[in-house]
Amino acid sequence: MEDVGRHELLASWSPWVPLGAAQVPQLPGVYIAKQGATGPMVYVGMAGERSGQGLRGRLRRYTSGKALASGLGEAVFDRALADVPWLRERMAEVESGRPLRATDWGKAALTWADLHVCWAVTGSGAEAKVLEKKVLALQTVDWWNRDR
């Protein structure tokens, strides 16, 4: 049994928007990613104050391709690497002498994943961590999160 939608009972969430197209607040909070506009929720993450950047700073790290080895960026990249057509496209770029930089591979993986996000603002990073754990505990879906 999935608890999809029950996260809405825990906080006030923004509407779902494509990752990268959102005007995300520079405040601490929790974000949820789903694959596609109508697809399943796949990842829950949080952001503390991040030098005054909060959620915006955290999500911007992903859309810049600079977060391949942490959190959502790593989860997306792992799945893209397991997708044979996506990997063949990257290999064709390499074989034709047009290899992409690592950050561009990260961006290509995010495009492949077609992520949409929503978020809830919290009063602090500590509150965000608590809310993140509550959302993960509610869900029985196959989260991409490594540490649950």
Tell me what the structure shows.
The radius of gyration is 16 Å and the shape is globular. By secondary structure, it is α+β, with helices and mostly antiparallel strands. It has a four-stranded antiparallel sheet with strand order 1-4-2-3. Strand 2 (29-35) and strand 3 form a beta hairpin. Helix 2 (71-81) crosses helix 4 (102-113). It has five helices and four strands.
Task: Report a brief summary of the structure.
The chain has 148 residues and is α+β, with helices and mostly antiparallel strands. The chain is built from five helices and four strands, in the order E-E-E-H-H-H-H-E-H.
CA-based shape:
globular
Rg value: 16 Å
Tally of DSSP β-strands: 4
Question: Helices and strands: which structural class?
Answer: alpha+beta
State the end-to-end CA separation.
18 Å
Mean of the pLDDT scores?
A: 88
Report low-confidence residues grouped into runs of 5 or more: none
Considering DSSP H and I runs of 4 or more, what fraction of the residues is helical?
Answer: 25-40%
Topology as a string of helices (H) and strands (E): EEEHHHHEH
Count of alpha/pi helices: 5
For the biggest sheet, the summary is:
4 strands, antiparallel
Strand order of the largest sheet: 1-4-2-3
- Strand content of the residues, in percent? 15-25%
